[in-house]
Design brief:
four-stranded antiparallel sheet; transmembrane transporter activity; Rossmann fold; globular; 7 helices; alpha/beta; ATP-binding; 10 strands; transport
Length: 236
């Protein structure tokens, strides 16, 4: 469970102080699928970075279960992310000189899994996302939508309990967008906690709860009644 307690985040831009988040209080329960929406520059990515242990708040506390994330040293936060979280970015962050298969294997390699186990799991996920015939292609040889599918497979390969996604459907073709959103639906059915920052109304509509962030002010819109709630079986 995530919990924000009176969290404020200031940063400096061109000599001026900007408030990205102002006195936010929030609880995200295990297994919830949450969309954060709002205009550009409203603080959505900042919010995601705070949840992910990548950006310290100016004031307030960010909790994951009973752990105050920013009371941990940087090294411990890194371990927490690698063990509990998976990230999906609009920019993909694929290694350009590695194949699709090798990119997906990276998290498993860092965990010390055998080469055979790495390959089996990576091939399984890439095939699930319609990329069985693209295993040996490098990112430059893939479409934007295919690159996002590879990035999503890399996120899911080590079975994270929490998925944090920043504009995961931005600039995707309809087919790739549906693949990504179907994967989030499946992860939600498995009881994973999902937080998605998005401008895409279709993506936001798939979440079970909507938050609106505008000028640093967080508003909880509550349950998304267009979304079908699935029984939760596993906790974050």
């Amino acid at each position: 469970m995530f919990r924000l307690e009176n969290v404020t985040k200031h940063y400096s831009r061109r000599g001026e102080t900007v408030t990205a988040l102002r006195g936010a209080d929030l609880t995200i329960s295990d297994g919830q699928y949450v969309a954060i929406v709002g205009p550009s520059g409203s603080g959505k990515t900042t919010m995601l970075s705070l949840l992910g242990g990548m950006l310290s708040p100016t004031t307030g506390k960010v909790w994951l279960d009973e752990t105050s994330i920013y009371d941990l040293p940087v090294s411990a936060r890194s371990v927490l992310r690698s063990q509990r979280m998976g990230f999906v970015f609009q920019t993909f962050n694929l290694v350009p000189y590695l194949t699709a298969l090798q990119n997906v294997q990276i998290p498993l390699c860092l965990q010390g899994q055998s080469a055979a186990d790495q390959e089996q799991r990576a091939v399984e996920l890439l095939a699930r996302f319609g990329l069985a015939d693209r295993l040996q292609h490098r990112p430059s040889e893939l479409s934007i939508g295919q690159q996002q599918r590879v990035a999503l497979a890399r996120t899911l390969v080590n079975d994270p309990r929490i998925i944090l996604a920043d504009e995961p459907t931005g600039n995707l073709d309809p087919e790739s967008r549906e693949v990504v959103l179907d994967a989030f639906d499946a992860a939600h059915r498995e009881g994973r906690t999902i937080v998605v920052v998005t401008h895409d109304p279709v993506a936001a509509g798939r979440a079970s709860r909507a938050l609106t962030l505008r000028a640093g002010e967080l508003t909880d819109s509550g349950a998304n009644h267009e979304h079908h709630e699935f029984p939760q079986r596993r906790s974050a």
